[in-house]
């Protein structure tokens, strides 16, 4: 048995297929015609971009637009004039071959990204190394390994899987993934989860411990891998796998059923989405609406600001597809941590506490906020759209946003353009300030949606991307639980809807507490909806009060987690 990191849950049973990319030997070689060499690089770059676009389109069709964003991020790197310009200048100034110039410049960028403390930037280092190899492969005429053609029942074994390799996997043929490198938050791990393929990463020296054709079992939930297991182990994990498949099948019976607790409390079970295309999965898993539509996708992976018309079409599409079901759309939540060259955002020393979200939008009303709010109001004529303002810390921000919305409504009236005059405007409660002032906000906001990812980060003063202090990042910390309970109580007291769109909304150990606190709406990834419905319909909110009281009596996150784990079983 070998221990690694659990990257994607599930049991994988199959035959090992070792995947190794051909090693590229990159030498510094002089060229005679630097201009011709630049043209050779540009041709290879264009081909790599075409290949990347095809991968992104395929991924969007097979998995979802959110997952395709990973490959679209690669496309943005390939389109970055600073990167490509530096490679071209290196070729001209040093009169060297394209392969070496790409190696030199991309490695330098990758090393800079890897040295940053921000987890997202560290992931960008992996992306940079991936596109470096792919450009070099085109230049050298070397074909990448075709993972899409693996035989059925394959356990894919590799040193590491690049996002582009993972994107080409056929889930019908790959029963599991084991790698020597990687982590839970790597793009490859994210794609494995989206493809619903069990995966264990960071298994030290695994390539030397397994050979092609070996029988492999992996437990993606516990991070365990077995090579040529004995009969008892094989039988045990086959049974576990059968149970998981049976449970998945059984969840289908919850399609079309109302989300109501056993004591008759109706709950709204909705989904988080990133693009209009994601609505297909919401409908597939019988979501009751959208609790969080992140609008950042419209602004990222492009070279110019989206127009009002482009935004209007995207919001309208979601509203129409959901045919009257609620659609909560979050206004732009972006800052200096995101690379959007055309916005001219300076990198903040601490981007998560800096110039971002509502702060940025109110400061740049004319070019960013007004077009987005106009598009949202116009789209509200086609469905049940609600506007949500992120990262609010003081009541002035909500008032200023609502005043701008009122101003735009008057504009639309003068222009004879239809919109929902009673459109709701709420806030995402994700800062300690908003939590403490929840009673005040509840008098002026039409609804609350608790963003537990950031609420936990800000309440605990912990960078969730920093491994050294990750032990502090827990939504089960009593301070965070008290904050959540207070927010819900203030919302209920004022008679407004209180939802949750953070990771905690789909956590089986958190759901009983949230029901006891009185949460009205749970928003999560579409694939988690049916399991959550099954759990919710099995609970009585009145009976859960004693469970919540007990959980709230503990002083540490560990005690709360252990208690909830024993309760949920």
Offer a quick outline of the entry.
The protein has 569 residues and is an alpha/beta fold. It has helices spanning 34-62, 65-79, 81-94, 98-115, 119-140, 163-167, 187-194, 231-250, 279-284, 308-321, 357-363, 365-379, 395-415, 432-436, 438-441, 452-460, 478-494, 511-517, 529-537, 541-551, 557-568; strands at residues 2-3, 5-8, 11-19, 154-158, 174-179, 199-201, 215-219, 224-227, 268-273, 290-294, 326-330, 384-389, 425-429, 447-450, 497-500, 521-524. The protein folds into three domains: 1-20 and 148-230, Glucose Oxidase, domain 1, CATH 3.50.30; 22-140, Orthogonal Bundle (Enzyme I, Chain A, domain 2), CATH 1.10.274.10; 259-568, Phosphoenolpyruvate-binding domains (TIM Barrel, Alpha-Beta Barrel).
3D structure, described in words:
The chain is α/β, with parallel strands linked by helices and 569 residues long. The protein folds into three domains: 1-20 and 148-230, Glucose Oxidase, domain 1 (3-Layer(bba) Sandwich); 22-140, Enzyme I, Chain A, domain 2 (Orthogonal Bundle); 259-568, TIM Barrel, CATH 3.20.20. The chain has helices at 34-62, 65-79, 81-94, 98-115, 119-140, 163-167, 187-194, 231-250, 279-284, 308-321, 357-363, 365-379, 395-415, 432-436, 438-441, 452-460, 478-494, 511-517, 529-537, 541-551, 557-568; strands spanning 2-3, 5-8, 11-19, 154-158, 174-179, 199-201, 215-219, 224-227, 268-273, 290-294, 326-330, 384-389, 425-429, 447-450, 497-500, 521-524. Helix 1 crosses helix 5. The chain is globular, with a radius of gyration of 25 Å.
